Amino acid sequence: QIADPETCDRMYESLVRIHTNYYKNKYPRLKDTSFTGLTVEDYRMILATDILKQMEDMKKGTWRKLREKFYAKKPEEDSK
């Protein structure tokens, strides 16, 4: 038993509108961009794993980059 069937019906109709993209179809957008001005393709490129790895490298400090560069030698190079 539902305590308030009218409220339940309103919530159900609201969920149906969300599910069927009612407002997206009722109010179409002129451009497919976000508030930043980027398109979906731009976001996909940013979220790609290669780009994320490059961004992580950019976040590293200069000292950390130098330390990784010089201490990442293979054991074969030390024996020469």
Q: What is the string of helix and strand elements?
A: HHHHHH
In angstroms, what separates the terminal alpha carbons? 82 Å
Number of strands: 0
Total domain modules: 1
Output the radius of gyration: 26 Å
Structural class: mainly alpha
Helix content: 55-70%
| Low-pLDDT residue intervals, each spanning 5 or more residues | none
Shape: elongated
- How confident overall, as mean pLDDT? 80
Number of helices: 6
Structure notes:
This protein is an all-alpha fold and 80 residues long. Helices cover 68% and strands 0% of the residues. The protein contains six helices and no strands. The chain starts with a helix and ends with a helix. The model has no long low-confidence stretch (mean pLDDT 80).
Give a short summary of the structure.
The protein is mainly alpha-helical and 80 residues long.
Record the SSE blueprint.
Layout: H1 5-19, H2 22-26, H3 40-47, H4 49-59, H5 62-71, H6 75-79
Relevant terms:
elongated, mainly alpha, 80 residues
